[in-house]
Design a protein that fits this description.
579 residues, alpha/beta, binds pyridoxal-5'-phosphate, Arc Repressor Mutant, subunit A, Aspartate Aminotransferase, domain 2
Length: 579
C-alpha cells in the first residue's frame, strides 16, 4: 500500500513510508489511517498547534505521533458551515469523489467507518451514511464484506491520477442519486427479466406467452401494405387520428371523457408521469403519493423537485382520513393516485373512499393524476371504474397504458383531461419525443377496432387469475417466511411482508437463489417513510409463464430460509385479508 502524502510531509522518510501498510488518507492536519481508521496527528502540524483550530491540539507533543483530537475543524475537508453552503452529506460525498478522481484514494482503500467519520466531522452518522450511499450508487465505492466501505475499481475509460478531476469528467458528474432514489432499479429489474437463469417476479409486465405476437405480426403486415412509409414516418404530436378517435370514443362511452376534455397518445405511462410532473409541478411543490406507490412515479416526481408526502394505503386503497389531514395542513399541488389494483399493494379504492377523495380534491382545489395502469386487468369482477368517471369538477387527469393490457413494447399510453392541460402536455411532449411511434399506435388502434384487443384482454384476465391463484397458493406454503395483507383481485402484484430478514437482504438472497423480487423500500419516497418498506418485498406474476411460479417460489423459499437461520422471526401479523 502506498502513502499518499507528499514526501516532504510524510511521517517518516521511507518510500513508501513505514506506516504505508496502513494505507493512509491525508485529511489536512490529521492523518487518518484507513486500515485501523484511527486519526493521528501529523508531525509537522503538531509542531504548529495553533493551525489546528482544536483546543486539544495545543497540548500535542511535537514529533510524537499520537491520537489526534477528533474534530471536524481539524480535518482537511473541513465542512463549510456557512448559511448557503451545500448540505454536509454533499460536501462529504464530493470530497471523496474528488479524492477518488485525483487518485488520492485508490482502489481498495477503506473509507473510515461511518460513525467515526461522523464523530470527526461533528455531523450525524446518517449524514455520512447518506454520503456513502450516494457514492455506492455511483459505483465509486462499495461495501466489502468484513472490510467496510472501500474504493471500487474504476469503470473502463475512467482516468485516475493527479489532475484527473478535470480530465475524468465522468467522475465529476452530478451523482446518480440526483436522478432520483433507486435510479437504476427499474432498468435492473427489466435486465434481470431477460436473463435465462433468473425467474423474475420483479417485472410488472404481462407474461410473454400471453403477448399477441401472431396478431400483431399480421396487423403489421397489413398496415405496411396499406400505409407504407407513413407507418415509419413522424406523426402528429398528440397521436395519429386513427387512434385518438378510437380512444376518445371508448372513453366517452365509459363516461370518462367530459365536454371540454382532450386526449393525447403518449409513449407509455412513464412519459405521462414525466410530462405531468413537468407541466403541473414546480420544484418544491408538495405532491401526495400513496405509500407504498409505483416506484416510477416516486422517482419521476422526486426528480422534478417535488416534495412527496406519502399517505398510507390499506386494503381499501388510500386512507382518506390521513389524506384529509394532509390536505388541510399542507399546500398540496397534486395527488398521484392509483385507485385500481394498485402497484405494489394490489389494493383498490373502495367506492366510499372514491367519493371521499373527490370531495377532498374539490374542497382543497387539488387536482388528481389518476394512474390507471391495471384497472382493465381485473381477475374476478370489474374494478369499480375510474375516478375520472365520477369526477364532476374536472379535477382528474386520467392516465392509462396498453403496456399491461396488450404489450409493453408498443409503448402506447393515453391521457385524458381538461383541454388546457392536454395542450400543455402536448407542448412538453413535443420537447420530449415529438411523437409516439406511429407503428405502435397503428397496432393498438387496429387491435381495438378489430375486437382483437378485447379478446386478448379476456385471455389475459383469465390467465392472470389462474396464475395469481397459483402464486398465492405457493406463497401460502411458507407462512413462517412471509405473509400478505390481501389477496389481489386484479393486476400483477403481490405485496408481501417478510417475517425474516429485511427487504434488501431478501432481494439479495433471492437473487443468489435465482429469483428476482423488488425490495419494498423502493416503493416509498426518500426519507423517513422508506423504513416502512424494510419488511416488504413485491412479487409480480413471472413474465416467463405460469410454469415458473412453482420453481421460482421454491427458490425464493430456499433463499429466505437461509435468512431465517440465525435471524429472528417476526410475529405473524395477518390483518385484513381480502379474498
Ligand atoms: C402504476 C404504473 N404506472 C405506470 C407504469 C409505466 O408503464 P408504461 O410506461 O409501460 O406504460 C407502470 C409500470 O409498471 C405502473 O405499474
Amino acid at each position: 500500500m502506498t502513502c499518499y502524502r507528499p514526501r516532504e510531509e510524510r511521517c517518516c522518510s521511507l518510500d513508501p513510508c513505514r506506516h504505508a501498510a496502513e494505507t493512509r488518507l491525508l485529511c489536512g492536519s490529521i492523518w487518518l489511517s484507513l486500515q485501523d481508521n484511527k486519526p493521528r496527528m501529523n508531525r509537522r502540524q503538531s509542531a504548529k498547534p495553533s493551525s489546528f483550530g482544536s483546543p486539544n491540539a495545543t497540548t500535542a507533543a511535537p514529533n510524537r505521533p499520537r491520537r489526534a483530537p477528533v474534530s471536524g475543524a481539524s480535518l482537511h475537508f473541513e465542512l463549510d458551515r456557512t448559511r448557503f453552503a451545500p448540505p454536509f452529506f454533499k460536501q462529504i460525498r464530493d470530497h471523496i469523489r474528488k479524492a477518488v478522481a485525483e487518485g488520492t484514494l485508490r482502489v481498495g482503500v477503506r473509507l473510515p467507518p461511518e460513525r467515526q467519520l461522523a464523530g470527526m466531522l461533528g455531523v450525524s452518522r446518517s449524514t455520512v451514511v447518506h454520503a456513502y450511499q450516494e457514492l455506492v450508487a455511483d459505483g465509486l465505492v462499495r461495501a466489502a464484506p468484513s472490510r467496510g466501505t472501500v474504493v471500487a475499481p474504476l469503470e473502463q475509460g475512467e482516468i485516475q491520477g493527479p489532475g484527473a478531476a478535470a480530465g475524468s469528467w465522468t467522475l465529476t458528474l452530478p451523482p446518480l442519486a440526483a436522478l432520483g432514489s433507486d435510479s437504476g432499479l427499474l432498468s435492473e429489474i427489466v435486465g434481470a427479466t431477460g436473463r435465462g437463469d433468473v425467474i423474475s417476479f420483479a417485472s410488472a409486465a404481462p407474461p410473454e406467452d400471453l403477448l399477441p405476437v401472431a396478431e400483431v405480426a399480421e396487423l403489421l403486415q397489413q398496415a405496411f401494405e396499406e400505409l407504407g412509409p407513413r407507418l415509419v414516418g413522424y406523426g402528429p404530436v398528440d397521436g395519429i387520428p386513427e387512434l385518438t378517435e378510437v380512444l376518445a370514443l371508448r372513453m366517452r362511452a365509459a363516461g370518462a371523457m367530459a365536454e371540454g376534455d382532450g386526449v393525447i397518445v403518449l409513449s407509455g405511462s412513464t412519459q405521462g408521469l414525466a410530462l405531468a410532473a413537468r407541466v403541473l409541478v414546480e420544484p418544491g411543490d408538495e405532491v401526495v403519493v400513496e405509500v407504498p406507490a409505483y416506484l416510477g412515479a416516486i422517482q419521476t416526481f422526486e426528480l422534478a423537485g417535488a416534495r412527496l408526502i406519502g399517505v398510507p394505503v390499506d386494503a381499501d386503497g388510500i386512507r382518506t382520513d390521513s389524506l384529509e389531514e394532509v390536505l388541510s395542513r399542507r399546500r398540496v399541488r397534486l395527488m398521484v393516485l392509483q385507485p385500481n389494483f394498485q402497484n405494489p399493494s394490489g389494493a383498490s379504492l373502495s367506492q366510499r373512499r372514491r367519493e371521499h377523495v373527490l370531495w377532498l380534491a374539490r374542497r382543497h382545489g387539488v387536482p388528481i393524476l389518476e394512474d390507471d395502469a391495471y384497472g382493465a386487468l381485473y381477475h374476478v369482477a370489474p374494478a369499480p371504474g375510474s375516478l375520472k368517471q365520477l369526477d364532476r369538477h374536472r379535477l382528474v387527469i386520467y392516465l392509462s397504458s396498453f403496456s399491461k393490457t396488450l404489450a409493453p413494447g408498443l409503448r402506447v399510453a393515453v391521457m385524458c383531461g381538461p383541454k388546457p392541460i392536454i395542450a400543455r402536455i402536448a407542448i412538453a411532449k413535443q420537447f420530449s419525443d415529438l411523437n409516439t411511434s406511429p407503428l405502435g399506435q397503428t397496432i393498438v388502434s387496429r387491435m381495438i377496432s378489430s375486437g382483437l384487443y378485447d379478446a386478448n384482454l379476456e385471455r389475459l384476465r383469465s390467465a392472470s387469475r389462474e396464475r395469481m391463484r397459483s402464486l398465492l397458493h405457493e406463497l401460502d406454503g411458507m407462512p413462517q417466511l412471509l405473509e400478505r395483507d390481501l389477496d389481489p383481485r386484479g393486476g400483477l402484484h403481490v405485496w408481501c411482508r417478510l417475517r425474516v430478514g429485511d427487504a434488501q437482504e431478501a432481494a439479495t438472497t433471492a437473487a443468489r437463489s435465482g429469483v428476482a423480487v423488488v425490495p419494498g423500500t423502493a416503493f416509498y419516497p426518500t426519507g423517513m417513510q422508506r423504513a416502512a418498506g424494510r419488511d416488504r418485498i413485491r412479487l409480480s406474476l413471472p413474465v416467463s409463464g405460469g410454469h415458473a411460479i412453482k420453481v421460482g417460489v421454491r427458490r425464493l423459499r430456499q433463499g429466505l430460509e437461509q435468512l431465517s437461520f440465525g435471524g429472528e422471526q417476526r410475529p405473524a401479523r395477518r390483518t385484513a385479508v381480502v379474498v
